[in-house]
Write a structure and sequence with these properties.
This protein has 291 residues and is mainly α. It is built from eleven helices and four strands. 47% of the residues lie in helices and 6% in strands. The strands form two sheets. It has a two-stranded antiparallel ribbon with strand order 1-2. Strands 3-4 form a two-stranded antiparallel sheet. The mean pLDDT is 90.
Length: 291
């Protein structure tokens, strides 16, 4: 019951967050504006929009409660092995001791994913202290070697970098749906025509996923049937980006650069950024890496 309640509250928060980011102004620009409703009753017929600050507070309350509900199973008791190991996190055929209901936690809004989405929400709300608190929890799991990035040497053969992924959706027709947009011979392909959009570093193994015409091939790599259908929704690198931005906002450039260098190393880039970067310079590097 706790797992179901925790997942449901996290789903509600995630859906509202995405709707607010699409249809509303960023809180830093207009936190009083009314752009979307907050829906918590069923059936629900008429839902007037409410202030962004209200939506944010309710999303955060949902996610905080979700973490507490999910922690009992995902991190405090019996299921750690199935959440912290990639093979178990996304393999529906591996059944944990508690039964098949608890299999494939990576395709559910599990404790780790909710922690990341809470960090994302706090960051969007401009609460850098709270965002860092959540993101740092995930960063520490990497430092403590309980979670790990996909090895740089495996990125070409594992283009979705599934070791990084804490939460993914499923779409059995994903490759078919995506093929039109990343076939270099198609006029509908998502070409990256602007060479200034991001800087390519030759050592970065992700460059190998761009193809000859800068068309992303990540979702066209039919490595296994299981991976074909997965759409990554939250990965470790986002937690590191959030932590880096929060450290930079607080003026702790050494910590900011350290977490970004960790991501870069995981992608094959051995050259380290200097901790003498300004906040502006650091954010340029962070945004480039995310792109």
């Amino acid at each position: 019951k706790g797992v179901l309640q925790g997942e449901a509250k996290a789903i509600r928060a995630l859906l509202h967050l995405d709707m607010l980011r699409i249809f509303g102004q960023a809180p830093v620009l207009d936190i009083k504006g009314r752009y979307i409703p907050w829906v918590e009753e069923y059936p629900s017929i008429v839902n007037p929009p409410v202030a962004t600050e209200t939506v944010l507070s309710r999303m955060i309350a949902d996610l905080e409660e979700s973490k507490q509900l999910l922690a009992v199973y995902d991190t405090l008791k019996v299921n750690q092995q199935w959440l912290f190991e990639t093979t178990n996190r996304f393999n529906e055929k591996v059944i944990p001791p508690a039964g098949s209901f608890y299999a494939c936690r990576g395709s559910h809004l599990n404790y780790l994913a909710v922690t990341g989405i809470l960090a994302r929400t706090y960051l969007w709300a401009g609460n850098y202290e709270k965002a860092l608190e959540q993101a740092a929890e995930l960063v520490k799991l990497v430092t403590d070697k309980r979670l790990a990035f996909t090895p740089a040497t495996s990125i070409t053969s594992n283009p979705k970098m599934m070791d990084d992924v804490l939460f993914a959706l499923n779409n059995k027709d994903l490759v078919e749906a995506y093929s039109t947009y990343c076939d270099p011979t198609s006029s509908s392909a998502f070409y990256i025509e602007d060479p200034a959009l991001f800087r390519q570093i030759s050592a970065d193994k992700r460059v190998n996923l761009l193809g000859s015409k800068n068309v992303l091939t990540k979702y066209m790599e039919n490595k296994t049937a299981d991976l074909e259908k997965l759409i990554p929704m939250f990965r470790l690198s986002e937690a590191f980006y959030i932590a880096g931005e929060c450290y930079a906002k607080a003026g702790d450039m050494t910590s900011a650069v350290d977490v970004l260098n960790t991501v870069r190393k995981a992608r094959g880039i051995s050259a380290k950024l200097s901790n003498t970067l300004s906040e502006t310079e650091f954010m340029e590097e962070l945004i480039n890496d995310a792109r």
